[in-house]
Write a structure and sequence with these properties.
Layout lengths: L1 E4 L9 H4 L2 H9 L4 E8 L18 H12 L7 E3 L5 E3 L1 H9 L4 E7 L8 H17 L6 H11 L6 H8 L3 H19 L11 H13 L4 H13 L4 H12 L4 H14 L1 H8 L4 H13 L14 H25 L19
Parallel strand pairs: 3-5
Antiparallel strand pairs: 1-2, 2-5, 3-4
Helix pairs in contact: 3-4, 7-8, 8-9, 10-12
């Protein structure tokens, strides 16, 4: 095993270090020092600092792809670990190396142990992990990155500086901070969206209103309750907010909102009855679409009984979708392609 200290900010890079300059600079931005270590034993993969969701930690199809590349001798960037070998970046590479029986990996080993680190140091490690994970492999999903950004939100946190640390656009960090401000405003008023009718975009709108001081707490509370009860879209909520802010007195604003509630009474009554049958079908399709990007990771490989059961369910779902497509295919909807069977047992 051979360890070489990585350059400090402003120090020259050797040819070996220059190859990994981008990654080393991310370590520097996070305020850490470390060594580039060659010949270190591949970690067992059980200790990780998770910044991705569990299902994206080491996707099976990416592990298989990396394994094939490693076995033919392709070079990979160094993984990044703490001094006690908690993986900050490189879970997929580690799992691929273990499956390929590769005994050692190139590593940037930080001069800090995960166990015993302070809260401030752990936050910096998460920032480093977010920045590195977002730059490598498939990159982090939008939701995963925004969840990490939200975890760093708090008094005195500078959005511009955080964007630089995470290697993410300032506009996205500012937007997530606005969402956090909107959530805080509603929480302070005791408003909870128990039926999940508000999206992140709604909270962003509320955060912007708070910054511009467009309405007081009483008016906002009445508006938000109406938006939730009537399931207003983000655009509808913004339009209602603009109507409210054009009025000068709080009495006039509350009168307008009362009139809007009466106007939307049939809509609210329909929503309280629950979704229609087509609405339920769309919700079920939405659940399936959540697997669109990584359905390979959801395929059952191990248990023979579960494997057979899953195949049978997939075939039944396929038939339902074919019948649904056929039902949608009308004279007024000619762009829908006539369904064809794409799989049948025994083919």
């Amino acid at each position: 095993m051979r360890a070489t200290a990585i350059p400090q900010p402003g120090e020259p890079y050797s040819a070996k270090m220059a190859e990994w300059r981008t990654r080393i600079e991310q370590v520097q931005v996070a305020g850490f020092t470390g060594d580039l270590v060659e010949g270190v034993k591949t970690p067992d993969g059980t200790r990780t600092l998770q910044v991705r969701g569990e299902k994206h930690l080491a996707p099976l199809h990416m592990v298989a792809r990396y394994k094939a590349c490693m076995m033919r001798g392709d070079r990979f960037p160094p993984i990044v670990c703490t001094g006690d070998y908690y993986i900050i970046d490189g879970n997929t590479r580690v799992q691929a190396a273990l499956k390929a029986n590769i005994e050692s990996l190139l590593m940037i080993r930080l001069h800090i142990d995960y166990e015993g680190a302070t809260e401030s140091q752990l936050a910096r490690l998460r920032k480093l992990g977010t920045a590195l994970n977002n730059q490598n492999g498939e990159g982090m999903s939008k939701g995963s990155v925004e969840k990490q950004i939200a975890s760093f939100y708090g008094p005195g946190v500078n959005a511009k500086a955080l964007a630089a640390e995470l290697h993410y656009p300032e506009s996205t960090v500012y937007r997530v901070f606005k969402i956090c401000e909107g959530r805080q405003w509603l929480a302070r008023l005791g408003l909870t969206d128990e039926k999940n009718r508000l999206t992140a975009g709604h909270y962003e709108v509320f955060g912007n209103w708070q910054q511009k001081r467009w309405m007081n707490d009483t008016v906002l509370a009445v508006l938000v309750e109406l938006a939730m009860d009537a399931k207003f879209t983000i655009s509808q909520t913004k339009e209602l907010g603009l109507e409210v802010t054009e009025l000068t007195s709080d009495t006039a604003k509350l009168d307008l909102l009362d009139a809007k509630r009466r106007e939307n009474k049939p809509r609210i009554a329909g929503i309280s009855r629950g979704p229609s049958r087509p609405g339920q079908f769309r919700q079920a399709l939405g659940t399936v679409l959540a697997f669109e990007k990584d359905v390979e990771d959801a395929i059952e490989h191990d248990d023979p009984e579960d494997k057979k059961r899953q195949e049978e369910m997939l075939i039944r779902v396929q038939r339902i979708i074919e019948r649904g497509l056929k039902g949608q295919l009308t004279e007024n909807n000619p762009q829908v392609i006539a369904p064809t069977r794409f799989y049948a047992p025994g083919r």
